[in-house]
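Recap quiz, item 2
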Amino acid sequence: MSLEQCEKYTDSALRVGDADRYPQRVAGEFIGVVVSNDWVNKEYKHLVLKVHERALGTYAGQFFHLLCPTPDGAEVWMRRPMSVYRVDKKAGQLEFLYKCEGRGTRGMGMLAKGDEFNIAGPLGKGFKLDPAWKNIVVLGRGVGLATLAPLSQLAAEKKVGVTTILSARNPDVVMSKDLFESLGAKTVTVLDTDKSSDVANVSKIIEALIADKKADAFFTCGSSRLLKLMQQLGKKHGIPGQVAMEQIMVCGVGACYVCMRTFEIDGVKTLKRVCRDGPVFDMQTAVGW
Ligand SMILES: Cc1cc2nc3c(=O)[nH]c(=O)nc-3n(C[C@H](O)[C@H](O)[C@H](O)COP(=O)(O)OP(=O)(O)OC[C@H]3O[C@@H](n4cnc5c(N)ncnc54)[C@H](O)[C@@H]3O)c2cc1C
């Protein structure tokens, strides 16, 4: 079955019990069991789930749609989209890094070891690595770093060098540094507190990487101003790039069209569904927010 045919089955992903009819189906609904759910700082938690082996077949940049428990006894309407932070195939575990902010993620924050958690996925189109790329630059901010983190796994598998620029408000909320470094990536941290996260400084860092031939492709998530910077530098130096977009979602499988965003392709503005056509898109087509 071709990948394209497989993708067709994503629409039926939430139908339970059809695994026999569609053995090569790429997505499904799974019950994960919580291994741990710990705070990594004051705002973010790290959830580790033991899952069915089919849920482990996820690409960097894909996401799961999570049925979050209630934090207050009232119903939590709709699933919440969440990028896969890390896949541990040996241990049969999926990991998520998330910001505890609204009712869904606060409910998630209450999950304890041994609890069951309903997840649907893997969904969407993830990052792609061109075999010709030897070195890539990854630029993320805030929770965008959770989405970019699995690129480090993918790049390590393909023996691609990674420089990651981690942008954060302050040192307490710098995330994924350890994960990137443990997989061989070089990291540069830029902060609002010392103004090193200013666009002009980040631009200088990337220009130096380009001059050093360490930038065959760009990857970004989590900041409109950083997306614009990478688009400008990409255009100027002819460097391709990919961006992972975030958008409020309802169905997560392309049926409801709630997550439409504007893209510009060859000068023509067009609408695309972030859940199904993305969430990873060609960087130059994305219109910032
Ligand atoms: C593809 C994708 C991957 C994501 N990956 C991560 C991740 O790895 N870690 C993480 O912390 N966050 C991630 N987000 C954002 C995350 O989905 C929202 O923060 C979360 O849905 C907020 O839910 P809530 O109940 O806490 O907030 P609420 O404000 O109560 O949510 C209300 C509604 O808004 C939606 N919503 C709110 N903020 C966002 C947002 N930024 N993007 C999409 N929907 C939103 C929720 O789904 C819900 O329907 C991702 C979003 C997308 C689209």
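The radius of gyration is 19 Å.
Confidence is low (pLDDT under 50) at residues 1-23.
End of item.
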